[in-house]
Amino acid sequence: MQNRHPIGDRRPSRRLQRASALAVIALVCAVAAGCTAVTNPIADGIPVRLLPPEIIGPSKCNYQTIPLNALKQPPSDTYRLDSGDVLGVFIDGYLGDKNVVVPVNLAPLVNIPDQNRIPPSTGYPVPVQEDGRIALPAVPKLLVKGLTLGEARDAIVNLYNQKDNIKVVNDRISVTLMHPRQTQVLVFRQEAQNFLAGQDGPIPISKRNTGHLVDLPAYKDDVLNALARSGGLPELDAFNEIIIYRDGLRDPDKNLTKQLEKSKPGPLPSWVGETIRIPLRLPQGAPLPFGVNDVVLRSGDVLFVEARDEEVFYTAGLLPPGKHVLPRDHDLDVIEALALVRGPLYNGAFGGSNLSGTLIQPGLGSPSPSLCTVLRRVPGRGQVPIAVDLRAALLYPQERIPLRPGDVLVLQEKPGEALSRYVTQTFLNFNVIWNVFRSSNAVGVINAGAPGGYATPELNLVQP
Protein backbone atom coordinates (compact mmCIF):
# COMPACT_ATOMS: atom_id res chain seq x y z
CA MET A 1 0.00 0.00 0.00
CA GLN A 2 1.47 3.36 -1.02
CA ASN A 3 2.14 5.90 1.74
CA ARG A 4 0.70 9.37 1.28
CA HIS A 5 2.10 12.53 2.85
CA PRO A 6 -0.23 14.45 5.10
CA ILE A 7 -1.91 17.48 3.70
CA GLY A 8 0.00 19.69 6.13
CA ASP A 9 3.29 18.49 4.60
CA ARG A 10 2.28 19.48 1.08
CA ARG A 11 1.03 22.99 1.87
CA PRO A 12 4.42 24.61 2.61
CA SER A 13 5.84 23.20 -0.59
CA ARG A 14 2.95 24.51 -2.65
CA ARG A 15 3.09 27.90 -0.97
CA LEU A 16 6.80 28.12 -1.67
CA GLN A 17 6.23 27.22 -5.30
CA ARG A 18 3.53 29.85 -5.63
CA ALA A 19 5.74 32.51 -4.04
CA SER A 20 8.61 31.58 -6.32
CA ALA A 21 6.35 31.72 -9.33
CA LEU A 22 5.08 35.14 -8.34
CA ALA A 23 8.63 36.40 -7.87
CA VAL A 24 9.66 35.05 -11.28
CA ILE A 25 6.59 36.61 -12.89
CA ALA A 26 7.36 39.97 -11.25
CA LEU A 27 10.98 39.81 -12.38
CA VAL A 28 9.99 38.90 -15.94
CA CYS A 29 7.48 41.74 -16.00
CA ALA A 30 10.10 44.16 -14.74
CA VAL A 31 12.62 43.08 -17.37
CA ALA A 32 9.96 43.12 -20.08
CA ALA A 33 9.03 46.65 -19.04
CA GLY A 34 12.64 47.74 -19.51
CA CYS A 35 13.60 48.26 -15.86
CA THR A 36 16.97 50.06 -15.91
CA ALA A 37 17.82 48.69 -12.47
CA VAL A 38 18.09 45.23 -14.06
CA THR A 39 19.39 46.21 -17.50
CA ASN A 40 21.69 49.01 -16.29
CA PRO A 41 24.85 48.74 -18.48
CA ILE A 42 27.00 50.73 -16.04
CA ALA A 43 25.88 49.07 -12.82
CA ASP A 44 29.13 47.10 -12.50
CA GLY A 45 31.36 50.09 -11.80
CA ILE A 46 34.59 50.23 -9.86
CA PRO A 47 34.02 50.89 -6.13
CA VAL A 48 35.52 54.10 -4.83
CA ARG A 49 37.82 52.28 -2.39
CA LEU A 50 39.51 50.43 -5.28
CA LEU A 51 40.26 53.49 -7.41
CA PRO A 52 43.91 54.43 -8.01
CA PRO A 53 44.96 57.98 -7.04
CA GLU A 54 45.40 59.06 -10.68
CA ILE A 55 41.69 58.38 -11.32
CA ILE A 56 40.52 60.21 -8.20
CA GLY A 57 42.67 63.24 -9.01
CA PRO A 58 44.13 65.96 -6.78
CA SER A 59 41.99 67.55 -4.11
CA LYS A 60 41.40 71.27 -3.72
CA CYS A 61 40.38 71.14 -0.07
CA ASN A 62 43.88 71.93 1.25
CA TYR A 63 44.54 74.78 -1.17
CA GLN A 64 44.79 78.34 0.10
CA THR A 65 45.57 81.75 -1.33
CA ILE A 66 49.25 82.61 -1.17
CA PRO A 67 50.33 85.60 0.98
CA LEU A 68 49.77 88.57 -1.28
CA ASN A 69 52.88 90.32 -0.02
CA ALA A 70 54.83 87.59 -1.85
CA LEU A 71 53.80 89.36 -5.06
CA LYS A 72 55.49 92.56 -3.91
CA GLN A 73 59.18 93.37 -3.91
CA PRO A 74 60.87 94.09 -0.55
CA PRO A 75 60.65 97.76 0.45
CA SER A 76 63.76 99.95 0.26
CA ASP A 77 64.78 102.39 2.97
CA THR A 78 66.51 104.76 0.53
CA TYR A 79 65.99 105.71 -3.07
CA ARG A 80 68.88 104.62 -5.29
CA LEU A 81 69.37 106.34 -8.62
CA ASP A 82 69.34 104.45 -11.90
CA SER A 83 68.83 105.04 -15.60
CA GLY A 84 65.52 106.71 -16.31
CA ASP A 85 65.59 109.06 -13.31
CA VAL A 86 65.50 112.78 -13.96
CA LEU A 87 67.37 114.95 -11.47
CA GLY A 88 66.76 118.60 -10.71
CA VAL A 89 70.27 120.11 -10.47
CA PHE A 90 71.29 123.69 -9.67
CA ILE A 91 75.00 124.67 -9.85
CA ASP A 92 75.68 128.34 -9.43
CA GLY A 93 77.43 129.65 -12.54
CA TYR A 94 77.01 126.47 -14.59
CA LEU A 95 73.38 125.34 -14.27
CA GLY A 96 71.65 128.52 -13.18
CA ASP A 97 72.72 131.73 -11.55
CA LYS A 98 72.24 132.97 -8.02
CA ASN A 99 70.75 136.21 -9.33
CA VAL A 100 68.02 134.28 -11.21
CA VAL A 101 65.14 132.56 -9.49
CA VAL A 102 65.68 128.80 -9.35
CA PRO A 103 62.98 126.87 -11.26
CA VAL A 104 60.50 125.06 -9.01
CA ASN A 105 58.59 122.03 -10.28
CA LEU A 106 55.25 121.12 -8.68
CA ALA A 107 52.91 118.21 -9.28
CA PRO A 108 49.58 118.97 -10.98
CA LEU A 109 46.92 120.21 -8.60
CA VAL A 110 44.30 117.89 -10.14
CA ASN A 111 44.61 114.35 -8.82
CA ILE A 112 44.00 111.81 -11.60
CA PRO A 113 43.31 108.20 -10.59
CA ASP A 114 46.37 105.95 -10.80
CA GLN A 115 48.57 109.01 -11.26
CA ASN A 116 52.06 108.78 -9.77
CA ARG A 117 52.44 111.66 -7.37
CA ILE A 118 55.67 113.57 -8.03
CA PRO A 119 57.26 115.42 -5.10
CA PRO A 120 58.25 119.10 -5.53
CA SER A 121 61.74 119.69 -6.92
CA THR A 122 64.04 122.53 -7.85
CA GLY A 123 66.72 122.98 -10.48
CA TYR A 124 67.21 122.15 -14.11
CA PRO A 125 66.40 118.70 -15.50
CA VAL A 126 69.37 116.34 -15.86
CA PRO A 127 68.44 112.78 -16.91
CA VAL A 128 70.35 109.72 -15.83
CA GLN A 129 71.41 108.06 -19.07
CA GLU A 130 71.38 104.37 -20.00
CA ASP A 131 74.91 103.85 -18.69
CA GLY A 132 73.97 105.32 -15.29
CA ARG A 133 75.84 108.60 -15.83
CA ILE A 134 74.76 112.23 -15.94
CA ALA A 135 76.20 114.94 -18.23
CA LEU A 136 77.09 118.27 -16.57
CA PRO A 137 78.70 121.37 -18.14
CA ALA A 138 82.49 121.80 -18.01
CA VAL A 139 83.15 118.38 -16.41
CA PRO A 140 83.23 114.75 -17.60
CA LYS A 141 80.23 112.48 -17.19
CA LEU A 142 79.58 111.37 -13.63
CA LEU A 143 78.41 107.86 -12.64
CA VAL A 144 75.49 108.19 -10.22
CA LYS A 145 73.90 104.75 -10.61
CA GLY A 146 73.27 103.22 -7.19
CA LEU A 147 73.80 106.51 -5.29
CA THR A 148 71.33 108.33 -3.09
CA LEU A 149 70.48 111.99 -3.69
CA GLY A 150 72.87 113.10 -0.96
CA GLU A 151 75.67 110.93 -2.30
CA ALA A 152 75.07 112.25 -5.81
CA ARG A 153 75.31 115.85 -4.57
CA ASP A 154 78.62 115.18 -2.84
CA ALA A 155 79.93 113.45 -5.95
CA ILE A 156 79.06 116.50 -8.07
CA VAL A 157 80.83 118.86 -5.66
CA ASN A 158 83.96 116.68 -5.66
CA LEU A 159 83.91 116.43 -9.46
CA TYR A 160 83.88 120.22 -9.92
CA ASN A 161 86.45 120.85 -7.22
CA GLN A 162 88.83 118.34 -8.80
CA LYS A 163 88.63 120.16 -12.15
CA ASP A 164 91.36 122.71 -12.82
CA ASN A 165 90.38 126.35 -12.24
CA ILE A 166 86.88 125.34 -11.10
CA LYS A 167 85.80 125.86 -7.54
CA VAL A 168 82.19 125.72 -6.43
CA VAL A 169 80.75 126.57 -3.08
CA ASN A 170 79.05 123.70 -1.35
CA ASP A 171 75.91 125.64 -0.47
CA ARG A 172 75.42 126.71 -4.11
CA ILE A 173 74.67 123.21 -5.39
CA SER A 174 71.34 121.44 -4.97
CA VAL A 175 70.24 118.02 -6.27
CA THR A 176 66.61 116.88 -6.12
CA LEU A 177 64.58 114.15 -7.76
CA MET A 178 62.47 115.78 -10.43
CA HIS A 179 60.94 112.68 -12.02
CA PRO A 180 61.48 109.13 -10.72
CA ARG A 181 62.03 106.37 -13.22
CA GLN A 182 59.04 104.28 -14.25
CA THR A 183 58.46 100.77 -15.53
CA GLN A 184 55.81 100.48 -18.22
CA VAL A 185 54.00 97.15 -18.58
CA LEU A 186 50.94 95.87 -20.42
CA VAL A 187 48.17 94.04 -18.52
CA PHE A 188 45.58 92.03 -20.46
CA ARG A 189 42.61 90.56 -18.63
CA GLN A 190 39.99 88.12 -19.95
CA GLU A 191 37.19 88.26 -17.43
CA ALA A 192 33.44 88.56 -17.26
CA GLN A 193 31.78 91.91 -17.24
CA ASN A 194 28.52 90.81 -15.62
CA PHE A 195 27.41 87.80 -13.59
CA LEU A 196 24.00 86.18 -13.19
CA ALA A 197 22.98 84.52 -9.94
CA GLY A 198 22.08 80.91 -10.79
CA GLN A 199 21.53 77.61 -9.04
CA ASP A 200 25.22 76.72 -9.31
CA GLY A 201 26.42 80.17 -8.19
CA PRO A 202 27.44 83.29 -10.17
CA ILE A 203 27.38 82.59 -13.91
CA PRO A 204 29.24 84.93 -16.32
CA ILE A 205 26.89 86.25 -18.98
CA SER A 206 29.29 88.39 -21.00
CA LYS A 207 33.02 88.32 -21.59
CA ARG A 208 35.33 91.27 -21.97
CA ASN A 209 38.95 91.63 -22.97
CA THR A 210 40.57 94.65 -21.39
CA GLY A 211 44.07 96.02 -21.84
CA HIS A 212 45.86 98.41 -19.50
CA LEU A 213 49.04 100.38 -20.08
CA VAL A 214 50.40 100.71 -16.53
CA ASP A 215 53.25 102.98 -15.46
CA LEU A 216 54.78 101.80 -12.19
CA PRO A 217 57.24 104.00 -10.27
CA ALA A 218 60.50 102.61 -8.96
CA TYR A 219 60.23 100.21 -6.00
CA LYS A 220 56.55 99.67 -6.87
CA ASP A 221 57.14 97.94 -10.18
CA ASP A 222 55.87 94.50 -9.14
CA VAL A 223 52.98 92.16 -9.86
CA LEU A 224 50.90 93.23 -6.86
CA ASN A 225 50.86 96.90 -7.85
CA ALA A 226 50.16 96.02 -11.50
CA LEU A 227 47.12 93.97 -10.44
CA ALA A 228 45.90 96.68 -8.09
CA ARG A 229 46.01 99.27 -10.88
CA SER A 230 44.31 97.08 -13.48
CA GLY A 231 41.35 95.64 -11.57
CA GLY A 232 42.56 93.49 -8.67
CA LEU A 233 42.76 89.72 -8.37
CA PRO A 234 41.26 87.48 -11.10
CA GLU A 235 37.50 86.91 -11.10
CA LEU A 236 35.84 83.49 -10.69
CA ASP A 237 35.75 82.90 -14.44
CA ALA A 238 39.54 83.30 -14.77
CA PHE A 239 42.45 81.09 -13.75
CA ASN A 240 44.06 81.66 -10.36
CA GLU A 241 47.31 82.38 -12.13
CA ILE A 242 49.28 85.31 -13.48
CA ILE A 243 51.28 84.75 -16.67
CA ILE A 244 54.22 87.06 -17.42
CA TYR A 245 55.71 87.19 -20.92
CA ARG A 246 59.20 88.66 -20.80
CA ASP A 247 61.97 89.46 -23.28
CA GLY A 248 59.94 88.86 -26.41
CA LEU A 249 61.87 88.26 -29.65
CA ARG A 250 65.35 88.27 -28.21
CA ASP A 251 66.93 87.88 -31.64
CA PRO A 252 65.52 90.60 -33.93
CA ASP A 253 67.17 89.01 -36.98
CA LYS A 254 64.81 86.03 -36.90
CA ASN A 255 61.70 86.14 -39.03
CA LEU A 256 58.86 85.46 -36.60
CA THR A 257 56.33 84.32 -39.19
CA LYS A 258 58.64 81.81 -40.88
CA GLN A 259 59.93 80.47 -37.57
CA LEU A 260 56.44 79.90 -36.21
CA GLU A 261 55.39 78.15 -39.42
CA LYS A 262 58.32 75.75 -39.09
CA SER A 263 57.92 75.13 -35.36
CA LYS A 264 56.06 72.03 -34.18
CA PRO A 265 53.32 72.00 -31.53
CA GLY A 266 54.77 72.20 -28.05
CA PRO A 267 56.79 74.69 -26.01
CA LEU A 268 57.76 77.87 -27.81
CA PRO A 269 61.42 78.27 -28.80
CA SER A 270 63.70 80.14 -26.41
CA TRP A 271 64.16 83.11 -28.73
CA VAL A 272 60.45 83.96 -28.44
CA GLY A 273 60.95 84.97 -24.79
CA GLU A 274 60.57 83.85 -21.21
CA THR A 275 57.25 82.81 -19.70
CA ILE A 276 56.75 83.05 -15.93
CA ARG A 277 53.68 81.54 -14.26
CA ILE A 278 52.71 82.74 -10.79
CA PRO A 279 49.92 80.67 -9.13
CA LEU A 280 47.71 82.47 -6.63
CA ARG A 281 46.59 79.32 -4.76
CA LEU A 282 48.83 76.52 -3.52
CA PRO A 283 48.50 73.52 -1.18
CA GLN A 284 49.13 74.28 2.47
CA GLY A 285 52.81 74.14 3.28
CA ALA A 286 53.94 74.07 -0.36
CA PRO A 287 56.93 76.31 -1.21
CA LEU A 288 56.41 79.23 -3.54
CA PRO A 289 57.43 78.25 -7.10
CA PHE A 290 58.71 81.76 -7.88
CA GLY A 291 61.19 84.22 -6.46
CA VAL A 292 61.63 87.95 -5.97
CA ASN A 293 63.16 88.41 -9.41
CA ASP A 294 60.02 86.93 -10.96
CA VAL A 295 57.58 89.39 -9.36
CA VAL A 296 59.72 92.47 -10.07
CA LEU A 297 58.61 93.68 -13.49
CA ARG A 298 60.64 95.12 -16.31
CA SER A 299 59.70 97.58 -19.00
CA GLY A 300 57.99 95.75 -21.83
CA ASP A 301 56.65 92.86 -19.71
CA VAL A 302 53.17 91.59 -20.59
CA LEU A 303 50.90 90.36 -17.78
CA PHE A 304 48.05 88.07 -18.81
CA VAL A 305 45.01 87.02 -16.75
CA GLU A 306 43.51 84.21 -18.82
CA ALA A 307 39.84 83.26 -18.78
CA ARG A 308 39.02 79.61 -18.18
CA ASP A 309 36.32 77.55 -19.79
CA GLU A 310 33.47 76.57 -17.53
CA GLU A 311 34.18 73.28 -15.78
CA VAL A 312 30.88 71.39 -15.75
CA PHE A 313 29.40 68.03 -14.84
CA TYR A 314 26.26 66.36 -16.18
CA THR A 315 23.34 64.55 -14.53
CA ALA A 316 21.15 61.76 -15.90
CA GLY A 317 19.04 58.79 -14.78
CA LEU A 318 16.72 59.58 -11.88
CA LEU A 319 18.34 63.02 -11.55
CA PRO A 320 17.06 66.03 -13.46
CA PRO A 321 19.02 65.96 -16.74
CA GLY A 322 21.22 68.99 -17.14
CA LYS A 323 24.63 70.63 -17.08
CA HIS A 324 25.99 72.22 -13.91
CA VAL A 325 29.05 74.36 -13.17
CA LEU A 326 31.78 73.10 -10.85
CA PRO A 327 33.25 75.57 -8.34
CA ARG A 328 36.73 76.88 -9.08
CA ASP A 329 38.37 76.90 -5.66
CA HIS A 330 36.89 73.94 -3.76
CA ASP A 331 35.81 70.35 -4.33
CA LEU A 332 32.25 69.20 -4.92
CA ASP A 333 31.65 65.57 -3.93
CA VAL A 334 28.84 63.25 -5.00
CA ILE A 335 26.57 63.94 -2.01
CA GLU A 336 26.94 67.71 -2.41
CA ALA A 337 26.24 67.40 -6.14
CA LEU A 338 23.01 65.47 -5.51
CA ALA A 339 21.90 68.12 -3.03
CA LEU A 340 22.86 70.87 -5.51
CA VAL A 341 20.70 69.46 -8.32
CA ARG A 342 17.86 68.64 -5.86
CA GLY A 343 18.05 64.94 -6.50
CA PRO A 344 16.25 62.26 -4.42
CA LEU A 345 18.46 61.67 -1.42
CA TYR A 346 16.63 59.81 1.38
CA ASN A 347 13.44 61.70 0.62
CA GLY A 348 10.97 59.86 2.84
CA ALA A 349 8.28 62.53 2.71
CA PHE A 350 8.71 64.70 -0.40
CA GLY A 351 9.47 64.09 -4.04
CA GLY A 352 11.40 66.37 -6.35
CA SER A 353 9.89 67.87 -9.48
CA ASN A 354 11.45 67.85 -12.94
CA LEU A 355 8.77 70.17 -14.43
CA SER A 356 7.05 67.21 -16.08
CA GLY A 357 6.14 65.09 -13.06
CA THR A 358 7.58 63.67 -9.91
CA LEU A 359 11.11 62.32 -10.10
CA ILE A 360 10.41 59.54 -7.64
CA GLN A 361 7.51 58.74 -5.31
CA PRO A 362 8.25 59.06 -1.58
CA GLY A 363 6.84 57.11 1.32
CA LEU A 364 6.51 53.51 2.48
CA GLY A 365 7.25 51.03 -0.28
CA SER A 366 9.18 53.65 -2.23
CA PRO A 367 12.87 53.17 -1.37
CA SER A 368 15.31 55.95 -2.12
CA PRO A 369 17.72 55.01 -4.95
CA SER A 370 21.24 54.38 -3.67
CA LEU A 371 23.27 53.47 -6.77
CA CYS A 372 25.10 56.44 -8.32
CA THR A 373 27.51 55.79 -11.17
CA VAL A 374 30.08 58.43 -12.06
CA LEU A 375 31.32 58.22 -15.64
CA ARG A 376 34.79 59.73 -15.66
CA ARG A 377 36.91 60.44 -18.70
CA VAL A 378 40.47 59.14 -18.78
CA PRO A 379 43.32 59.91 -21.21
CA GLY A 380 43.01 58.12 -24.51
CA ARG A 381 39.31 58.90 -25.16
CA GLY A 382 38.13 56.33 -22.66
CA GLN A 383 35.99 56.41 -19.54
CA VAL A 384 35.78 54.61 -16.22
CA PRO A 385 32.46 53.84 -14.46
CA ILE A 386 32.76 54.49 -10.74
CA ALA A 387 30.12 52.91 -8.49
CA VAL A 388 29.16 55.02 -5.47
CA ASP A 389 26.91 53.50 -2.80
CA LEU A 390 25.07 56.53 -1.46
CA ARG A 391 24.25 54.82 1.82
CA ALA A 392 27.94 54.16 2.45
CA ALA A 393 28.85 57.64 1.21
CA LEU A 394 26.58 59.24 3.81
CA LEU A 395 28.33 57.31 6.56
CA TYR A 396 31.95 57.33 5.38
CA PRO A 397 33.46 60.53 3.89
CA GLN A 398 36.14 58.56 2.02
CA GLU A 399 33.37 57.18 -0.20
CA ARG A 400 32.39 60.66 -1.37
CA ILE A 401 34.46 60.97 -4.50
CA PRO A 402 35.01 64.57 -5.66
CA LEU A 403 33.73 65.41 -9.11
CA ARG A 404 35.96 66.36 -12.00
CA PRO A 405 35.18 68.35 -15.17
CA GLY A 406 33.18 66.28 -17.64
CA ASP A 407 31.86 63.75 -15.11
CA VAL A 408 28.39 62.29 -15.73
CA LEU A 409 26.29 61.36 -12.69
CA VAL A 410 23.75 58.59 -13.38
CA LEU A 411 21.44 57.77 -10.48
CA GLN A 412 19.57 54.46 -10.59
CA GLU A 413 17.95 51.98 -8.22
CA LYS A 414 19.47 48.72 -7.20
CA PRO A 415 17.53 45.61 -8.35
CA GLY A 416 16.10 45.05 -4.86
CA GLU A 417 14.91 48.65 -4.64
CA ALA A 418 13.37 48.51 -8.11
CA LEU A 419 11.62 45.20 -7.31
CA SER A 420 10.23 46.61 -4.07
CA ARG A 421 8.88 49.63 -5.90
CA TYR A 422 7.37 47.47 -8.64
CA VAL A 423 5.64 45.14 -6.18
CA THR A 424 4.20 47.94 -4.06
CA GLN A 425 3.23 50.35 -6.82
CA THR A 426 2.45 48.14 -9.82
CA PHE A 427 1.97 44.50 -8.95
CA LEU A 428 -0.23 45.13 -5.88
CA ASN A 429 -1.91 48.20 -7.27
CA PHE A 430 -5.57 47.26 -7.83
CA ASN A 431 -9.05 48.59 -7.20
CA VAL A 432 -12.13 46.62 -6.01
CA ILE A 433 -15.64 47.92 -6.70
CA TRP A 434 -18.44 46.34 -4.65
CA ASN A 435 -22.13 47.08 -5.08
CA VAL A 436 -23.44 47.10 -1.53
CA PHE A 437 -27.10 47.46 -2.41
CA ARG A 438 -29.28 48.34 -5.35
CA SER A 439 -32.82 49.68 -5.37
CA SER A 440 -35.13 51.36 -7.79
CA ASN A 441 -33.80 54.83 -6.97
CA ALA A 442 -30.34 54.30 -5.40
CA VAL A 443 -27.19 52.25 -5.78
CA GLY A 444 -24.53 51.93 -3.03
CA VAL A 445 -20.93 51.33 -4.25
CA ILE A 446 -17.68 50.92 -2.22
CA ASN A 447 -14.37 51.41 -4.06
CA ALA A 448 -11.33 49.93 -2.26
CA GLY A 449 -7.71 50.28 -3.47
CA ALA A 450 -4.47 48.44 -2.68
CA PRO A 451 -1.51 50.01 -0.79
CA GLY A 452 -1.48 53.35 -2.52
CA GLY A 453 -5.20 53.34 -3.26
CA TYR A 454 -8.12 54.58 -1.26
CA ALA A 455 -11.65 53.57 -0.25
CA THR A 456 -14.55 55.95 -0.74
CA PRO A 457 -18.19 54.95 -0.45
CA GLU A 458 -20.29 56.32 -3.25
CA LEU A 459 -24.06 56.62 -3.38
CA ASN A 460 -25.53 56.81 -6.84
CA LEU A 461 -29.20 57.79 -7.07
CA VAL A 462 -31.13 56.53 -10.03
CA GLN A 463 -34.09 58.63 -11.15
CA PRO A 464 -37.33 56.63 -11.17
Notes on the structure:
The longest helix is centred in the first third of the chain and has 26 residues, at 7-32. By secondary structure, the protein is an alpha+beta fold. It has 10 helices and 23 strands. It has 4 domains: 14-43 and 312-426, no CATH class; 64-70 and 183-305, no CATH class; 86-179, wza like fold (2-Layer Sandwich), CATH 3.30.1950; 429-461, no CATH class.
Using brief descriptors, characterize the structure shown:
464 residues; alpha+beta; wza like fold; 4 domains; six-stranded mixed beta sheet; five-stranded mixed beta sheet; 10 helices; 23 strands; 29% strand; disordered C terminus
Which SSEs are present, and which pair or pack?
Elements: H1 7-32, H2 36-39, E1 46-47, H3 53-56, E2 63-65, E3 86-91, E4 104-105, E5 121-122, E6 124-127, E7 133-134, E8 142-143, H4 149-162, E9 173-179, E10 182-198, E11 201-217, H5 223-230, E12 241-246, H6 256-262, E13 274-279, E14 281-283, H7 292-295, E15 302-305, E16 312-317, E17 322-325, H8 334-340, E18 371-378, E19 382-389, H9 390-395, E20 408-412, H10 415-427, E21 431-438, E22 442-449, E23 456-461
Parallel strand pairs: 1-19, 10-15, 16-20
Antiparallel strand pairs: 2-14, 3-6, 3-9, 4-5, 7-8, 10-11, 12-13, 12-15, 16-17, 18-19, 18-20, 21-22, 22-23
